[in-house]
Amino acid sequence: MSVITYFRRTGPAAVTELRRLLGEDPPAAFAFADGLPGTHTDRAWAGLRFLLLDREPPVDVFAAGEPFTILTAEEVRATAAFLAATPFTALAAGYDRALMASIGVYPEDLWEADWALSYLEEAYVRVTGLFRAAAAAGDLVTAWRA
Q1: How far is CA 101 from CA 115, 127, 128, in A?
Q2: How far from 4 is each of 16, 45, 89, 93, 146, CA to CA, in Å?
Q3: pLDDT grade, residue 1 (50/70/90)?
Q4: In what order do the strands lie in the sheet with 38-40?
Q5: How many Cβ atoms are within 10 Å of 129's Cβ, its own excluded?
Q6: Per-residue pLDDT tens digits for 48-77
Q7: What is the distance, to the nearest Å, from the Cα of residue 96 to the centroid of all Cα atoms in its chain?
Q8: How far, rounded to the nearest angstrom, does the alpha carbon of residue 49 sit from its chain's CA centroid?
């Protein structure tokens, strides 16, 4: 089974409903969140986190909490601005297959693949687009890992 990080755009009403469901029926909370508009990183989340940490992002969006991380509209705006100012080409310069494998960046079997860097880029583009759209709408973002 793979571990994936999910990102969903949420407004205040959706956050209220999510919190209510968490208290009453946690599986229903995940089903509700999964039905909201958003994207996921597939298994790229840890690789992206590795590439971003040295750049000191305003929010570590790839460290999804339990059961959910709910980012405020201000955190979403700050993250969107940071991601927009950080092109993937800048991150790619820090891509180090050997280091990622030696420190156990999840999934350890991925980083030697010829397509691993483009895989990370595709996930980065999706997440950047989600944060840009959420920031423009004043939305919150809910993240979780499953």
Answers
A1: 15, 24, 25
A2: 24, 7, 23, 24, 6
A3: low
A4: 38-40, 5-10, 140-145, 69-71
A5: 13
A6: 999 998 899 999 988 877 899 999 999 999
A7: 21
A8: 9
